[in-house]
Amino acid sequence: MLASAAVDRREFVKIVITGSLASIGCPDAALRDRAPASAKPAGAAGAPDQTVRAEINAYCHAVRDGAEVRLPRPSRHRPIVIVGGGAAGLAAAHALGDRPYLLIEKEPAVGGDATGGTWRGVGFSSGSSYNSEPIIKELAAELGVTLLPIDSADGMIVKDIFVPEFFRDGVRRAPYPQTVRDAFRRFLDTYRDYDVDSEVERLDNLPFAEILKDYPREVRDFFDSYGPNNWGARVQDTSAYIGIQAAHWMGGLEPGRFTGEQGFGLLTRALGERVVARGTDRLITGATVVRVARDGDRILVAYVPPGEAAAPTTAGGAASRAPGWRRRSRARIAPSSRSGSCTATIPRALHATAQRPMAVSNRVKKI
Predict the structure, then answer these.
(1) Would you state the torsion angle of the CA atoms of residues 294, 32, 110, 333, taken in this order, to the nearest 10 degrees?
(2) How far apart are CA 332 and CA 291, in angstroms?
(3) How many whole angstroms separate alpha carbon 299 and alpha carbon 54?
């Protein structure tokens, strides 16, 4: 069983950047054994499609753009509901062991952005490709998944030219003017050990673009491409608190990194198989959660299977017929709720599992 851990502001920001998920639940409610009609068979957790496809975001975008869900009367009870079957949600399910729970994942297979596959015999990862936290090694060892150390920094493709170990010595060989190469080195040398927490209020209210305004245009262009893939925004819409921290870890500068043959795809697949092995009624795939709300001593979770009417469920409550949809001039996103005896126990592996900058090429050392 994995232990829980507190989260400080800086670690929380790191988790938000990297797209972790959380679980919610009330441990004292009754559990009905009936499996949801849309629950997938055991193979759905362990055999993701090998083709590359877009995420299923139609309902997410509808809520974002102003559609509000009116929750119906619930009809299914679960003591604990885990929203999202990515690496963090799977780690939460693993930590719960044999305790009853329901995990809801919007994609056809679990894994989130930590899935993987092979192409012509070469393994690849879809997003989360490496880490350096010991707790991930412990989890992989428990599940019998082999992880391998990485002994290089990330390479980059610049103007169609591959530059190995870009953020170490590689930047000196990049096809940029010397002034631009020097500017990349200056950014790293200035902010690699910068204490952002000592100026958190100022930096969090300062656009990252202000930090980069005296750098060559190529540096800003780089972060305008890099930012949306890592924390979801260009430099003008990124706080300096976030952007500066990139100098601490971007490009594989962290020591002790490791990966698997398919990034963390085999690890999340093994976690998904553990969930299904404990009962197919614990997992629904292809179901998008569109609202989480508190109702007295219960937490109601409404989800919509793609192409079907919604079937909401509750943690410490129940689930029922389709919710009503109505348009609003402005979307409203409710925060996670905690009521009565409801708690959210988040294992350390949740905080440790995170998407990192995509590695173009790495040398993996066999052990």
Answers:
(1) -10
(2) 10
(3) 30
| Beta carbons of 267 and 133 less than 8 angstroms apart | no
| Dihedral (Cα; 104, 108, 113, 117), 10-degree rounding | 140
- For the chain, how are helix, strand and coil distributed in percent, rounded to 5? 35, 20, 45
Q: Which residues contact 300 (CB under 8 A, 6 or more apart)?
A: 71, 74, 291, 292, 293, 294, 312, 313, 314, 317
Reduced to 3 states (helix: H, G, I; strand: E, B; else coil), residue 184 is helix
pLDDT digits (tens, 9 = 90+) for 180-210: 999 999 999 999 889 999 999 999 999 999 9
Q: Is 337 helix (H, G, I), strand (E, B) or coil?
A: coil
Which CATH number describes the domain made up of 9-135+139-145+261-352?
3.50.50
For the chain, which residues make up each domain, given as ranges? 9-135+139-145+261-352, 156-249
Q: List 321's β-bridge partners, or say none.
A: none
Q: What are residue 301's DSSP bridge partners?
A: 292, 313
State which H helix or E strand residue 180 sits in: helix 178-191
- Distance in angstroms (rounded) separating the CA atoms of residues 175 and 156: 11
Burial tier of 273 (Cβ tally within 10 Å: 0-12, 13-18, 19+): middle
3-state per-residue secondary structure call for 133-159: CHHHHHHHHHHCCCCEEECCCCCEEEC
Name the amino acid, one letter, at 37: A
Does the pTM surpass 0.70? The reply is no
pLDDT at 312: 54
CA 265 to chain centre: 13
CB-CB contact of 302 with 320 (8 Å): no
Q: Do residues 247 and 192 make contact, with C-beta atoms less than 8 angstroms apart?
A: yes
Summarize pLDDT for 90-111 with one digit per residue, the tens.
999 999 999 999 999 999 999 9
| Phi (first) and psi of residue 101, to 5 degrees | -155, 170
